[in-house]
Amino acid sequence: MPTLDMPDRPHLDSFRRQARALQRAVRAGEPEALARLARHHRGASPDDSGAIQLSAAQFVIAREYGFGSWPGLARYLETVAEHGWQTGLGAAPVDDPAGEFCRLACLTYSREDGPVRWEQARRLLAQHPDLTKANIWAAAAAARPDDVSRLLAEQPRRVAERGGPLGWRPLYYLVYSRFDTAIPAGPVLATARRLLDGGADPNEGYLFDALPSPFTLLTGVFGHGELGPQRQPRHPHWRALGRLLLDAGADPNDAQTLYNRMFSSDDSHLELLFEYGLGSGDGGPWKARIAGLGTPAQLLRVQLRWAVEHHQPARVRLLVEHGVDFRSRFEGGGPAWSPGDGRTPVELAHVNGDTEIADYLVAQGATPPSPDPVRDLIAAAFRADRSTVDQIRVAHPDALAEARRSRPGLMVWAATQASAETVTLLAELGFDVNAYGRGDAPVEAAWETALHHSAANGNVELTRRLLDLGADPDLRDERFDGTPLDWARHLHQMPTAALLEPVTAPPPNAG
After folding, report:
1. pLDDT tens digit string along 46-80?
2. Quick one: DSSP state of residue 84?
3. Residue 467: CB atoms within 10 Å
4. Following DSSP, what letter does each residue of 194-223 receive, concatenated?
5. Is the separation of the CB atoms in 21 and 44 below 8 Å?
6. Of the candidates 392, 303, 314, 396, which has an alpha carbon nearest to the alpha carbon of residue 354?
7. Which one of 67, 200, 343, 486 is CB 3.0 to 4.6 Å from 62, fit for a cystine?
8. pTM value?
9. In what order do the strands lie in the sheet containing 205-208?
């Protein structure tokens, strides 16, 4: 796993400078530099630090950014140079009406996305109805097939030109456009066909802010993401447009699509992608460009883990029916929220108290989990099964202490996945109601508290219960430096905000 974040505008020269600085620091015997060398390059012992070669320092830098070698990092930077894109462009207004329309009309997968921008784009197009006449990117974003055909007839090379305020090719503007859901499917599909017939690449995509998972045309078709379906909706004609791209050769193994859509229980995107071979093949052109992308089989294993841990039984069944490996343990690298921790899918279902998924997997041939007092205690607590918890504590006196030691942030996960009764039981068992943890996956990371999540989800009952159990409303999360009240206000959860306002201390500079 990488220990450093890729900069927004990476260039090989900056990494060369980092490697030289590390080489000098190691030769000088600086403890932190020696520790980095020992952590990432076991073949270079501290005894050799005075003679460390630049290649060894380069290897360490590559590993710190998540790459297996310096050449691998260099190849990736070449891909970024060719296919990179900066989300900050979506927040930079332009004077030209056609360009400004393009900027406002499209998803940019940034905090700028949302209905307010799309309304501005509609007004701008109404004020300047001819802005699509001479600008192929605006014509594509507006789904004007006649304008696109005429502009391509004048200059066929326009089909592959990056341009407009976002630096995309025309088909990308069409697919990421969201400004008007009332546009019929006919003009959208006619525009897409004209661009594809003219040579547009159905696998076009960009690396947003140099992140290694490409946002492809299919990503734009299927939409969704961390800001939710209201601010990052799927294309209004997603099914027909997605089928058109897949028929034209788009590879169905689209990692970013799978990520963006996994938060919702809707499986319609998977059903269409499976129809075109999701999970098979070599991963397509993006896998060839970026070696670190998962294989098709690995992508679906990650989806299986998420579905098991987030109580998505229909998705589990769909994945199993399409041949996804549900028997093996999760091993090797993976996203932080999908670690290779050696557990099987059925063990994960069991520890999260999901007997429906666990029983289904066993019925399909998964090996039932062997008894484990710690796991069994947590599973019983998630079912709010006090009787079983008590039995395990009697039979295994050390199980509770080990559960608290190994899962210090469990209260946060419980606040997002379980009932108020489970939260109460965990508190009675000594789990810290003010512990920091991660609410999107059952992995340990000191991000926020359980109260942050109940406030953000608008769960008045759970928020009141947590406060009664001693939750501190003044604690700030480690990522955004916000209180639970800040989270409730930010997500417009007025009921929980009203509950928290009287008990939250005002900021130091207030009043």
Report:
1. 566 667 889 999 999 998 888 888 998 998 899 99
2. E
3. 18
4. HHHHTT--TT-EEEETT-SS-EEHHHHHH-
5. no
6. 314
7. 67
8. 0.87
9. 84-85, 205-208, 215-216
